[in-house]
Amino acid sequence: MIELSALRKVYPSADGPVVALDGLDLTVGRGVVHGIVGRSGAGKSTLIRCLTGLEQPTSGTVTVDGTTLTGLSEKQLRAARRRMGMVFQHVNLLDSRTIAANVAFPLEVAGVPRERRRARVAELLDLVGLGHRAGAYPAQLSGGQKQRVGIARALATEPAVLLCDEPTSALDGETTRQILGLVRDLRDRLGITVVVITHEPSVVREVCDEVTLLEHGRVVQSGPLTEVVTATGSPLSRALVPVPDLPPEARRDLVEVTYATDDVATRDAFAAVAALGDDVEVLSATVEPLAGRRVGRLLVDAPRSGTDAVVARLRAAGLDPVVTGREAGGPDPAAGRREGVT
């Protein structure tokens, strides 16, 4: 559905070339909700501009729904963009138009006859739960309702791909959950492919099937959400399911264990630790919802002389332990929690 191959974008500047995307390869399958995360300057904004054809890459190719965008004429690009819907952080509704007229706008641009526009707008507003507000104006809506209108507008031309650029960063927690639930529901109903650009790990946990971490224009980590999260000690694993707070008195080796509750029940994970004896204990633990699944993480305090045996026995129990103790020379277990993916 979406394929980026050796994608490179370089901007000229007074201080020399600035590489925004550096040989990026990425594939997103049909019907998938895929999150793109990374710090400011990682290349997220440039990536979405290349996806929409607003930026032409320096080299490499962008293919969306079977059409390679690189090298198309402006007329061909306009036609290709109709197969892509765009949801913005700031919804950018036209204040002088009603909600129905805002949703109808891309259909007007596409030359759709008036009666077909009316029917399509009514269908879309019902789909996002705002059929009763068709005659309202943007100033009369809440932030969440405005974003619903933005989603309806993005779907007007029946796109195959929905691109969401920080769609919930201006919303409160409960409204964010409602909007993300709507996005997943629309994906399930319509079978569209969704790409979500975000700096919020909670958004990825809530809505995404897959996730990619960008750093300096390159893919650092990418894959299905549960696979990425259970890659113990990896950047995305720690950002999406943070390492639990570490008690300050802990001074022995620490063993970090991550598991998907579909595969290992939480009680079984704790039982595996309890079976190691009185000298081994769980210092802290967390279980996070993850796109309809749950992932657990434990920090286990182990005696230095017996750490290898602890790791071996936990692996034998079906877990994936990694030694992360500070005194063992590993990274600070709280580092992933502090750094996140902003």
UniProtKB/TrEMBL annotation:
GO molecular-function term, one example from the UniProt record: ATP binding
PROSITE patterns to which the protein is assigned, alphabetical: ABC_TRANSPORTER_1 (PS00211), ABC_TRANSPORTER_2 (PS50893)
Protein keywords: Amino-acid transport, ATP-binding, Cell membrane, Membrane, Nucleotide-binding, Translocase, Transport
GO BP term, example: amino acid transport
ABC transporter domain: residues covered: 2-241
Transcription among keywords: no
Pfam families (UniProt xref): ABC_tran
Chain positions covered by the region annotation Disordered: 322-342
Coiled-coil stretches noted in the UniProt entry, renumbered to this chain: none
Gene3D superfamilies named in the record: P-loop containing nucleotide triphosphate hydrolases
InterPro entries, alphabetized: AAA+_ATPase (IPR003593), ABC_transporter-like_ATP-bd (IPR003439), ABC_transporter-like_CS (IPR017871), MetN_ABC (IPR041701), MetN_ABC_transporter-like (IPR050086), P-loop_NTPase (IPR027417)
Family, per entry: Belongs to the ABC transporter superfamily.
Purpose of the protein: Part of the ABC transporter FtsEX involved in cellular division. Has ATPase activity.
Name listed for the protein in its UniProt record: ATP-binding cassette domain-containing protein
Source organism (scientific name): Cellulomonas shaoxiangyii
